[in-house]
């Protein structure tokens, strides 16, 4: 059983199909019920177009039980976040990150083609299809004592993943003025109140790829000014044209409307230290990635562009050398 703010997920046996399923039982609160009905609508739309069922979790059925919306899903494995957590936040090998990234971008491109924006992409919402894993030596920890077993780490047996949690998914034509995305994966245009669209998903993908190859969330913060300061520390200064257009609520984060109010506006010394300890994006990737680092850095610079109009689209990202160079090396047609 897994619990969350929405309710809980139960593992059950479907007597008709004779298979194990996951049932999401949504709390009997109106806003959660509304989100659940949106999710059902999106899942059914995705299911009609995802014939092979390889991109997004498959809905089996749904019903209303004592004012609780219950959604029946196929049973999948753990989320990428849970896998990282149980592995002491040790990163995935770069070739596995590449395969996760390719599938994630294919799923996002599929959704965007259907005029759908996920708006809540994060490792918790990406599930491994299988729970099986293998133990392999972790060469970074080989010098440690063998007693605690820390020189081994787990790797999933299969790299197959699927997207879940479409309760926040938005159709392109709907209102886009509210705040979206879980904090760590939230794009700058959302924080600045500039409006958002498909590119907000691509920013989240960039944050996710960094986390998968480093083991830690890129922007570990809980408030906007610190978040923007972290972005500038890792990626360089925010563009003036975005600062000038920031909405009234975001104006307070800038000095005379031109420069981020940092570190002057920091809430604590701990906050300043949290920002200053962050390396530049290139250095961060070089710390964790042995080969393909150059291609990955270039891909991330395209996904984490401040201006959403300049950010890579999902299908553009899939054509990036980080993915295609590896295929050419093994003689696959492109």
Give a verbal description of the structure.
- GO terms for molecular function: ATP binding; protein serine/threonine kinase activity; protein serine/threonine/tyrosine kinase activity.
- It comes from Sesamum indicum (Oriental sesame).
- It catalyses: L-tyrosyl-[protein] + ATP = O-phospho-L-tyrosyl-[protein] + ADP + H(+); L-threonyl-[protein] + ATP = O-phospho-L-threonyl-[protein] + ADP + H(+); L-seryl-[protein] + ATP = O-phospho-L-seryl-[protein] + ADP + H(+).
- InterPro entries: CLK_kinases, Kinase-like_dom_sf, Prot_kinase_dom, Ser/Thr_kinase_AS.
- Belongs to the protein kinase superfamily. CMGC Ser/Thr protein kinase family. Lammer subfamily.
- The protein is α+β, with helices and mostly antiparallel strands and 334 residues long.
- The protein folds into two domains: 2-74, 2-Layer Sandwich (Phosphorylase Kinase, domain 1); 80-329, Transferase(Phosphotransferase), domain 1 (Orthogonal Bundle).
- Helix content is 38%, strand content 17%.
- The protein has helices at residues 30-49, 80-86, 94-113, 188-191, 199-214, 224-235, 240-245, 269-276, 281-288, 293-303, 314-318, 321-329, and strands at 2-4, 7-14, 19-26, 59-65, 68-74, 116-117, 126-128, 133-137, 152-156, 161-163, 170-171, 254-255, 259-260.
- The strands form five sheets. Strands 1-2-3-5-4 form a five-stranded antiparallel beta sheet, covered by helices on one side. The chain has a two-stranded antiparallel sheet with strand order 6-11.
- β2 (7-14) and β3 (19-26) form a beta hairpin.
- α5 runs antiparallel to α10 (293-303).
- The radius of gyration is 21 Å and the shape is globular.
- Residues 330-334 have low confidence and may be disordered.
